[in-house]
Specification:
This protein is an all-alpha fold and about 280 residues long. It has 3 domains: about 1-125, Cytochrome c-like domain (Cytochrome Bc1 Complex, Chain D, domain 2); about 140-230, Cytochrome c-like domain (Cytochrome Bc1 Complex, Chain D, domain 2, Orthogonal Bundle), CATH 1.10.760.10; about 245-280. It has 14 helices and no strands. The radius of gyration is 29 Å and the shape is elongated.
């Protein structure tokens, strides 16, 4: 009886791990923004062969509740520090989804599945030298279109809100943008080309998933937005300090001017009453 149960579980695990199964669906919707299987690192590590590096219990706990693991588990803490202290987002997966996605990762880690993707990623990485990622003196045409999308000057095709409603980016950060999300000026340097592309294609963060699940960016919008963040990346928002100084100085000047006006007029009603009292009465 036990052997039959184990055999059934093994067959079910293989089915979950096959392309087109529930494991692939979970991985594509929840994991691809930060991870690959044999295509190199993104925001997080490449998961090819992870079953050989970590035991099943550790993997289950990490996928199920990464926040708790990153606070208490030494290996999870080390990984967090290694990958720029970008925490793994809790995707609130069910036990069945955790089992399915781990089975998919195991199946796709086989050499036959991962070789083609690894070769493609290697070629892409070699084709993009580090010097090519330097910020140009002026934004390219694609970056300008991406900037218009980011700040909402050009509406997104599927009706999602502009990034600037929650985020800031570039030298306009102090003047525009929301504060719900972080400043994305250095997002390209932080996540890399592949990581940023994955996030734009399928945002994995819980606050963004409900918004972009059915109103995601088109491939063209993703490319333009990525180009914008790439070209403004690596430079601090230089308008922050000057704008604060100018704004603070202007505020002080305005308050001083108002104080002067109000101070001079403070006795106006009293003086007016005295003048009217001293005027001689008109004869009829």
């Amino acid at each position: 009886m036990k052997l039959a149960a184990l055999a059934a579980l093994s067959l079910l695990s293989v089915a979950w791990g096959e392309p087109g199964g529930p494991g692939e669906a979970v991985f594509q919707s929840k994991c691809t923004a930060c991870h690959t299987i044999g295509e190199g690192t993104r925001v997080g590590p490449d998961l090819k062969g992870v079953h050989g590096r970590r035991d099943g219990g550790w993997l289950t706990r990490m996928v199920k509740d990464p926040g708790a693991m990153q606070k208490s588990d030494p290996i999870a803490k080390q990984l967090l520090a290694e990958f720029n202290n970008v925490p793994m987002t809790n995707q609130n997966l069910t036990d069945a989804e955790v089992t399915a996605v781990l089975a998919y990762i195991r199946e796709q880690s086989a050499p036959a599945h991962a070789a083609a993707g690894a070769a493609s990623f290697t070629a892409q990485t070699k084709a993009e030298p580090k010097a090519a990622r330097a910020r140009p003196a002026k934004l390219s045409r694609a970056a300008l279109r991406g900037r218009a999308l980011f700040w909402g000057k050009t509406p997104l095709a599927k009706g999602a809100p502009a990034c600037g409603s929650c985020h800031t980016a570039g030298q306009r950060a102090v003047l525009l943008g929301g504060t719900l999300g972080p400043d994305l000026t250095g997002a390209f340097d932080k996540f890399g080309e592949a990581g940023l592309a994955g996030i734009l294609a399928a945002p994995p963060y819980p606050t963004m998933v409900p918004i972009f699940a059915k109103r995601g960016l088109t491939p063209q919008e993703q490319q333009q937005m990525k180009t914008y963040l790439k070209e403004v990346g690596g430079q601090p928002s230089r308008l922050v300090l000057p704008a604060l100084i100018v704004g603070g100085t202007a505020g002080v000047v305005v308050l001083f001017a108002l104080a002067q006006v109000l101070w001079r007029r403070r006795l106006g009603p009293v003086r007016e009453a005295l003048v009217w009292r001293r005027r001689p009465a008109r004869s009829v």
